[in-house]
Known about the structure:
The chain is 81% helix and 0% strand. By secondary structure, the chain is mainly alpha-helical. It has one domain. Helix 4 (82-90) packs parallel to helix 6, helix 6 (110-122) runs antiparallel to helix 8 and helix 7 (126-137) runs antiparallel to helix 8.
Amino acid sequence: MAEVNQVAANEKAADKPIKKSIVEVFMKGAKKGFYIGVEQILPAMILGYVIIQFLKLTGLINILNIIFGPIMGIFGLPGEAIVVIISAFFSKAAGAAAAANLFSEGVLSAAQCTILIMPCMLMGTLVGHFARIILVSGVNPKHRGLMLLVPIVDSILGMFVMRIILTVMGLM
């Protein structure tokens, strides 16, 4: 009987999770955060920076400004802001990095960057998500266009709403 009680006690002890110290939990989280930054965020930020530099060096940013100036003006943005949206298609962080780069160069104001956070978040990484989720999951081809359109429309509405909010607040 003593052996049965000992076995039962050992099984109960094995079922209890091992309690980790706060330092162990913190270190594990810090390590995970570091790897997320190095493996996901940093490459995306570099992509955003490279896109901006490429467009500047080739003079394409000036052409984009002329072409997209009227469209982006609807949202209170200069034409160059289209680069942020293009970058965001590939990665949210790349869009944010492109906006930060244009802000640091004086092309965008803080309020304009606030407007641009909407497409970065609402349609950011659209290309990757579309390939990984929509195509892989076998969504009916008739509905794939709609699946692309929804985040784009959400972004447009989000930019309008953000512009209105910033205007009411007197920041635009």
